[in-house]
Amino acid sequence: MRQKYRPRPLSALAAAFLLAVAQLATAPDSRGQGAANRADQRRSEAATPRTPLPPEAVTSHNIDIGGQNLAFTARAGAVRLVDAGSGSPQADIAYVAFERADAGDAAQRPITFALNGGPGAASGFLDVGAMGPWRLSMEGAALAPSAAPVTTANAETWLPFTDLVFLDPPGTGFTRVLSDSDDVRRHFYSVSGDIDILAVTIRKWLEQHNRLASPKFIVGESYGGFRAPKIAHVLQETENVGVNGIAMLSPVIDFSWFEGTTPLTRVALLPAMTAVARGVSDRKSLADVETYASGEYLSDLLKGPRTKEAVDRLSTKVAGFLGLDRALVARLAGRVDADTFLRERNRAQARVGSMYDGTITALDPNPDAAESHWSDPFLDGLRAPIASAMTDITVNRLHWPVGDLRYEILNNQVVRQWNWDRGRRTNEALGDLRHALALDPKMRVLVMSGITDLITSYFGAKLLIDQLPAYGDARRVRFQAVPGGHMFYSRDDSRASLRDAGRELIEGRHEGE
Q: How does the average pLDDT of the chain come out, rounded?
């Protein structure tokens, strides 16, 4: 997505969770772009030895949560993927897993597989940010590359009600591609290939650790939320593994809704920008803008920018909601994109805002420029601390000897090489969610979004989820908007809400029961 103002330089943009990425390596080679990307790929691989990852390391741990001791076993290792015909190794998919040590028969306990997005993002965000036994602060002074990667016991860990496995797809974390084949790599870095190998990895992990009888859940954030229903669908129909439920956090459900300049894209984004402008974190405070966005706003957008009366109404209303100059909004025909909103909202203070949480700002490196290119204050501020924390946990606490391998928290090369099949905006996961829910009447779904997320807006996710049939019990699919942005779990209150909603999903309860 390219709009008037670009909030990040190309390298950071390509590493972002899912949107506003650079031109992909799958584009035609007519100008040498494909050759350049292959050269980048070769340089990257030259620095990454194709050596197998070490055997699984198993350690025992205890943490104190609210005065209660939680004992658990940690596993750090890799699932080996091989060619079905020749048996030659293709990849070692790295994981860290945590299992309760005092909760009865492991084969009967719930097991949850967690994935982040990108593509090209490792699972460290969900691990030390939200669900794992140790947590890294992600607020205030912690939002800086120089912040100390010190973790503490996570009071909101999901371990009391489910065992956890955090997976890192090829190109992320410590996962290593072992094959020399270009075809293998193209398969790994594609929408369909990525889903296939993650489904196989989950099935093999369950087999190797005697957990096929356990209730199984998938949690995916951002592009991981796009992955989750697709993985569940493939597990059901190809790998012969049933999934009891999925959680989609800040998900991109349909790329055509979250990108571009269509009326639906505008409708989806307006409430989130209004939340930033008003400084509110309660969705009830946005009832008026939600009603306007899905009613008069959509109606006037559909009339088109050549209809003066509609543009006049849009300009007045949108300027009021967003706190922007009406003349600016009028020049944009009432169609304000997130980049322009963040730039103009913070220009007088010489600051720039985050697409991942519009309430978070940083100094503008070019405050006097008509346009500015900046690193995202939220996402880019967290990269180094999270990667360092994951390296420290994996190597020093879990004693998995990965040598001098670097933990890839956000990998630019993966995004540049990604194959979106017929184009990114043709991809959607709502159809897979429909099929998975229809096939298994016991399957449950949680969709949770941050109110001030300008990447995958909460209102867009809600409108899409509302298109699902009831499938018997409408409570099987739950949507919840919480304070915060894309990584809403950075906030203590929203992380607690996520834990509580996750417990309800896994225990099969509904709110209020």
A: 87
Residue 80 backbone dihedrals phi, psi, to 5 degrees: -85, 125
Q: Which of 28-32, 226-230, 300-304, 322-326 has the lowest mean pLDDT?
A: 28-32
Q: What is the CA radius of gyration of the chain?
A: 22
Question: For position 511, what pLDDT does the model report?
Answer: 52
pLDDT at 313: 95
Burial class (CB in 10 A: 0-12, 13-18, 19+), 367: middle
Structure tokens at 359: 């309430």
Contact of 118 with 112, CB cutoff 8 Å: no
Structure token pair of residue 422: 């017929």
> How would residue 316 be classed by pLDDT, with cut points 50, 70 and 90?
very high
Cβ(392)–Cβ(407) below 8 Å: no
Long-range contact set of residues 498-503: C-beta below 8 Å, sequence gap at least 24: 498/130, 498/156, 498/249, 498/448, 499/131, 499/156, 499/157, 499/158, 501/247, 501/446, 501/448, 502/112, 502/131, 502/158, 502/161, 502/162, 502/219, 502/247, 502/446, 503/158, 503/161
Model pLDDT, residue 473: 83
C-beta of residue 274 within 8 angstroms of C-beta of residue 443: no
Q: How far apart are CA 489 and CA 439, in angstroms?
A: 31
In this structure, the strands spanning 245-249 and 134-136 are: unpaired
> Counting every residue, how long is the chain?
513
Assign 170 to helix, strand or coil: coil
Beta strands in 231-274 (DSSP E): 245-249
Q: Which residues contact 401 (CB under 8 A, 6 or more apart)?
A: 54, 57, 395
